[in-house]
Amino acid sequence: MNARLDHRNPLVFDTHELGRRPGAMQKLSRTVQAPGGDNVFGIADVIAIPGDSPVEIDLRLESVMDGVLVTGTARAHAEGECVRCLEPLERELTADFQEMFSYPEAEERHRRMAGTDADSDEDESITPLEDGMFDLEPVLRDAVVLSLPMQPVCREDCPGLCTVCGARLADDPEHHHDAVDARWAALQGLAGTMPAGEKDELDGAETGVDEKQEK
Ligand SMILES: [Zn+2]
Ligand SMILES: [Zn+2]
Q1: What ligand is nearest to the CA atom of residue 182?
Q2: What is the DSSP track for 87-112?
Q3: Disordered: where is this region (predicted)?
Q4: CA of 147 to the centre of ligand 1 (A)
Q5: pTM for the predicted model, two decimal places
Q6: Which residues have C-beta under 5 Å from ligand 2, the single-atom ion?
Q7: pLDDT tens for residues 90-119?
């Protein structure tokens, strides 16, 4: 467990106002700044929520027997680039999440029921409240990252880039290369820059063999 939660952290929420009477409900809205650098939500250079950009969070806190059930929605703006044509792209994201934060005594009771195996998977699924507070960051991060496209494309039928010259095919649907023509063009260009003597040498060398084969 990390250090105690800091109520000044915008992603730390306090449940004291909600109270512990089962059935009590509280709605909260908060806009936080997305983390940047190594903590960025997403994969930097592919698609991510830019650091310091706003993430709008709507939360519903419900008091239940063993803790507080948190249901929420986050809205954010993602930026990245198309995996096919590398053009920049933007997405408006909506991510839903739900997490149960347990009272410490409920967590202990659960731990006893789970037996002596303190490291069982069941224990990991319980997030305890600390001093009546919880940190939404891991929940929000998982929800936002899961809502990001794994292979973002500028449009579903993006044709990508030409594998020969890297031209953007969406700009030029007729674009194609004839492999033999391309080699001819390169060869002719090369020959044109050569003085007459060297040109003859070149023709007699291996490039000349290539030329004959292509004819
Ligand atoms: Zn594209
Ligand atoms: Zn091309």
Answers
A1: 2
A2: -EEEEEEEEEEEEEEE-HHHHHHHHH
A3: 193-215
A4: 19
A5: 0.73
A6: 162, 164-165, 167
A7: 999 999 999 999 998 887 887 787 765 555
